[in-house]
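Students often ask why inverse folding is considered easier than folding. One informal answer: many sequences map to the same fold, so there is more than one right answer. In these notes we will look at a single instance of the problem. The structure comes first.
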């Protein structure tokens, strides 16, 4: 657990969140400021600041986050209509919480390119 990290505190249950999924490697919860009807964050249990901080050993974990996103999309009924998984890296790309997380967005049309 990283001191002062909001997502580590959610993982430690010090701060509540609307949980969607929990397993041995990751959790998923509703984004507090949803940008789409489905906006879920998939978060590894281990504190990793961002994609610049992963190594080859983390390949399976990164894949796991995507698989969890696909499972949630299936359960939400948006697998066919379409959804997007997003991993913001660095402030310039919109990362505001420096505990790696994957956004799952769907339930509405999503434009391309993103802003
Ligand atoms: P990013 O900007 O990619 O770092 O994403 C951080 C996301 O965390 C944003 O979409 C926020 O709305 C979301 N967020 C911030 N605080 C909380 C919280 N307490 N519970 C759930 N989501 C949060
Ligand atoms: Zn953390």
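Output (designed amino acids):
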């Amino acid at each position: 657990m990283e001191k002062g990290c909001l997502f580590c505190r959610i993982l430690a249950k010090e701060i509540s969140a609307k949980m969607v999924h929990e397993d041995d490697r990751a959790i998923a919860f509703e984004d507090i400021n949803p940008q789409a009807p489905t906006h879920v964050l998939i978060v590894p249990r281990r504190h990793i600041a961002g994609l610049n901080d992963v190594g080859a050993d983390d390949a399976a974990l990164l894949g796991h986050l995507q698989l969890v996103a696909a499972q949630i999309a299936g359960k939400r009924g948006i697998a066919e209509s379409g959804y997007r998984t997003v991993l913001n890296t660095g402030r310039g790309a919109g990362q505001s919480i420096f505990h790696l997380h994957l956004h799952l967005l769907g339930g509405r049309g999503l434009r391309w390119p993103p802003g």
